[in-house]
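Good morning C.,

I know you're traveling, so I'll keep this short. The sequence:
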Amino acid sequence: MIYHWEGQDGVAPLAAAIHLGYLPSRVETEAELRFWLRQALPLRKGVNTRERGVLFLMGRGRQGEEVYTLATGKKPDLVLKTIERFLPLLGEDPLNYHFVDCSRTALQRYRTSKEAGDQGLSGWYNAIGRLVREVQRSL
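The tokens, ready to paste straight into the viewer:
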């Protein structure tokens, strides 16, 4: 499982933390979200330029799946295609890897949830949580 994003904010690290059970998938209030965001979470404030294109192992999920984050920069297609083409050279099957675009997908889900009345920072966070729950159901 590879949660990827541009690397400027903490959307993929948040998704990975939710996937691994370190953070809840839904919060009710902004105050609750602020409490959870005070926890020490690797890469939550984004990454520097040198760390783009690097897979960071965040942990193992409930079903034993490895959960990674990947900052792709502004050209995600190039980075993702390179990784997918490189995997067979390592003897890995690319079909065993699930790439989740957190930036684009979370933004679309937030727009949908905003229309349903789930607004603000907690609405954005809950959209990430919905994304993660769908990913976990698909395993």
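Safe travels,
E.
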